[in-house]
Fold:
Amino acid sequence: MRNKVTVVGAGNVGATVAQRIVEKELADVALIDILEGVPQGKALDIMESAPVEKFDARMTGANAYDISAGSDVVVITAGIPRKPGMSRDDLVATNEGIVSDVVRKVLPGSPKAIFIVVSNPLDAMCEVARRVSKLPRERVFGMAGVLDSARMRWFIAEALHVSVENTHAFVLGGHGDTMVPLPRFSTVAGIPLPQLLSKEKIDAIVKRTRDGGAEIVNLLKTSAWYAPASAVVEMVDAVLRDKKKILPCAAYLQGEYGMSDVYLGVPVKLGSGGVEQIVEIALTPEETVALEKSADAVRELFRILKV
Structure:
């Protein structure tokens, strides 16, 4: 019997996540959204591609949560983007209500599920899901670092004209302006990046990684979805296949890196138990300061939360 994944939010990110999961036959998918007809229509459209794409995993769409029962993984993409004139506090308050509602509705039918949060502000929404679900930290984490690292890997491959498969990048911290890309841990076929590119070129890649989301918003006038969806699916794959894969995720720290009670992007071992280990690496004083600054920005968001 196949695994089951529920994706809440049938927008660009959610629908693409659902599509890639069934196309890879990782699991059957329940796609849920409040907009009447949208999850049903997208699920039907994707399933009608199955004979051509040659997959037998099933997707169903609904506005109610009944179809989510028995899920192994729940991916939360629901929420609104920040709109012109909207303060950060307004965005947090609105999406806090949405994520809280999702968790309360999906958890009773899937009490053993692992939750992967994608909704923004990412680190704060992870904390909302953790507080509302009362689940252990291993089962509630967020997608950010995989996306940020993928962006950095592409920029490295582009700069060096090498295969993306040869590139590895390391990005820690919160998802946003305070993220902490680490070039000295980034490699190409095992060769440290500083041996291949000048400091000026590396600094440009770091800046472009940090601004990666904004660059796409400026071009599309909306948020990215292809790369975020791919990042989510890599995490789902690591959990469902118990791959014990080291990936950067937003995890709840309890003493690691000298920090506690905060979600922050760090390397973790992902397997069937969710976050099975938080991998600690030795940071330079400068990197430590940058990571602490990122943590402070996340804590500021936590102070706004009402749950």
